[in-house]
TrEMBL record:
Domain SRP54-type proteins GTP-binding: start-end pairs: 492-505
Keywords for this protein: Cell membrane, Cytoplasm, GTP-binding, Hydrolase, Membrane, Nucleotide-binding, Receptor, Transmembrane, Transmembrane helix
Ranges of compositional bias, category Low complexity: 110-164, 184-208
Record region (Disordered): 38-94, 110-209
Protein name: Signal recognition particle receptor FtsY
NCBIfam families in the record: ftsY (TIGR00064)
Source species of the chain: Actinoalloteichus hymeniacidonis
Superkingdom of source: Bacteria
Biased composition (Gly residues): 51-61
Amino acid sequence: MSTTLIWVLVIALVVLAAALITGVALVRRRRIRLSDAEAEKPTEQLRPAQRGGGYQAGGGFNLSATTAAPPVERTEVDGQPGVGDDASVPRDSHRQGIVDVTLPAGDVAAPTEQAAPEQAAPEQAAPEQAAPEQAAPEQAAPAPAETEQQTPGTTDTGATTTEPPTTPVPVQPAEPPTTPVPAQPQAAPQAPPAVTTDAASTETVVPTEVEEIAPTEGRLERLRGRLSRSRSAFGQGLLGLLGAGDLDEDSWTDVEDTLLLADLGALTTSEVVGKLRERIASRGVRTAGQVRELLTEVLVEALHPEMERSVRALPHSGRPAVVLVVGVNGTGKTTTTGKLARVLVADGRHVLLGAADTFRAAAAEQLVTWGTRVGAEVVRGREGADPASVAFDAVKQGTTLGADAVLVDTAGRLHTKAGLMDELGKVKRVVEKQAEVDEVLLVLDATTGQNGLTQARVFSEVVDVTGIVLTKLDGTAKGGIVFQVQRELGVPVKLVGLGEGPDDLAPFEPAAFVNALLY
Ligand SMILES: Nc1nc2c(ncn2[C@@H]2O[C@H](COP(=O)(O)OP(=O)(O)OP(=O)(O)O)[C@@H](O)[C@H]2O)c(=O)[nH]1
């Protein structure tokens, strides 16, 4: 009896000791004491050569020609998620394709009434231009829209009927080409219906004085320090928390708060913190230096460095690349269009700009100024002209002149106005009558935070956004918005605006960006 009791006592003691050891081990595992011995001997990844919060894109701009792009993965399930936490719900919904947007009837109707005689200038009219099949039944599409009517005060010659794949469009009065516009063989098999545009309401502005542009390689050095506000809010805070000392639950809560305050969004924040904690445990990390190294690794991963970020602005199939620049007003579309033109021109490319922002006369003026500075022709419309026709003419003119790229600046209008958004869809459709749109760059103002995400969602419903330009990153402490924007849209951030200057545009490189935020 006494022997049994002794054995029971011994077993109980052993179990107690085991529980104690396990408990201590668990507590130790969750509460990490970091030494800073190794933090003083950081790895290359931890301390990049450039310090001081400078964003340095290591390489130059990555430009490419259109190839068959892999399908874009979207991360939300609901087509219209809410803002804030709701915005991060993963989704995988069907986006309204551009084909679903009804082309306003006014664009295709009554060619005979609208076509003024002087438009059919002999040197512009190729024999096939007046092909009878233009009056195909599908031309008489329904659904009139506010964009279809050219106001008399802004139209000299009215509209002209054209059939994009095979028929030349009358060129702009300012700079008429001497040869007929060649048909676009790549578009021929599509045989879309004819479209009437207000071609004669546009003019081409040819630059006279051209600025010297520094080569793009290496000039991004100038952008050092532009992310300093984000860096102090994000990098310094995080590195302070993950420095030497105890890393307990409170510390992790603070890390989460820091990430949320920097606008990373709830989903990315929990993902980043989760991965960080898991890797710290599994890799037996014990120094502040190693934790920072892991932080860098996890943040870069969250930015999906594998995404294709080249700007498809190089010619292919014997025609210019077509880039549409879209976004709400004030985000920096015109500025970005001008900056991108400079990058291309510095790369030896012939660029033509299309000022399809006809809502605001000053916008076209602004673009003409950019064009003049870089040596790019600008096709512009009169105030109130049909933006789709200006875009159409710009692409046509770019093809005629043998340009490498046509950059079309669209009107920045409130994304809440469905009709106006439809008009943007129309711009793309009309341009696509003659050439594939290679790139649709959505310009978002980083300082607007969640509002920018709402805009992004709406725009992506109307046009297939292929890349994001995040502007004004120099003016916000919330550089973390980059993470959310990509997650929301499943579309890569390709370029970032870091100032108002003509060369303050940089290619987006995840590793360089994270390093700039942290160190
Ligand atoms: N700080 C900073 N300012 C910028 C940046 N990009 C554009 N801006 C400024 O933002 C303002 C609006 O830029 P715009 O290019 O006119 O914007 P927009 O989207 O074309 O506007 P609308 O023509 O009204 O549609 C201008 O004062 C630009 O100089 C940037 O990266 N950083």
